[in-house]
Specification:
The protein is mostly helical and 171 residues long. It has a single domain, classed as Four Helix Bundle (Hemerythrin (Met), subunit A). Helices cover 80% and strands 0% of the residues. The protein is built from five helices and no strands. It is elongated.
Length: 171
């Protein structure tokens, strides 16, 4: 294998890693939606476990977006100033997503031990809103930033991947 090929593989990894993180977050979101549906159908996790699942998802998503805002976006803006408007739009999405996550945490935090049909509609509405904005956000971000990230050379990101490139719940 040539060193030119190895260098290209390392460079391409950042954009590809971002896609992997988005896939993982989409799957995590689907698991949460399934857990909520199961709870309201009376065959799911108890509320405390559902809240823990939500907190893990919310923390992972917040960590990802905070990492983008603090690490990725400044690096991209410096190298590609023409993308500053795109980055600003993505930050606005991050703020909207965080607001929805706060609403979802409150709703799931107040679930009774036994499913209450009256609580189902607001919880599902927040999940639908979150799912919709995440889907459009990820697609837009991937469309605008994958090729940019694949072309960037940031050695410290290879040595120690920043939060926005991680797809595990514990980091």
């Amino acid at each position: 294998m040539s060193s030119e090929y190895e260098a290209h593989s390392r460079l391409a990894a950042f954009g590809n890693q971002l896609i992997e993180v988005h896939v993982w977050l989409r799957e995590f979101m689907e698991d949460l939606r399934d857990g909520v549906d199961d709870y309201f159908d009376g065959r799911g996790l108890p509320p405390i476990d559902l809240r823990a699942h939500c907190l893990a998802f919310c923390s992972a998503l917040t960590r990802h977006h905070t990492g983008e805002d603090r690490v990725a976006f400044p690096a991209i803006a410096e190298e590609f100033p023409e993308l500053r408007k795109v980055l600003s739009e993505l930050r606005t999405d991050h703020n909207q997503i965080e607001w929805i996550l706060g609403n979802l945490r409150k709703l799931l935090g107040s679930l009774p031990e036994k499913p209450d049909p009256a609580a189902a509609a607001p919880v599902r509405a927040e999940l639908e809103a979150l799912s919709a904005i995440l889907q459009t956000h990820f697609i837009y971000e991937e469309k605008k930033l994958i090729s940019v990230l694949n072309g960037m050379d940031v050695p410290e990101w290879r040595a120690d991947p920043p939060a926005f490139l991680r797809h595990d719940a514990e980091s």
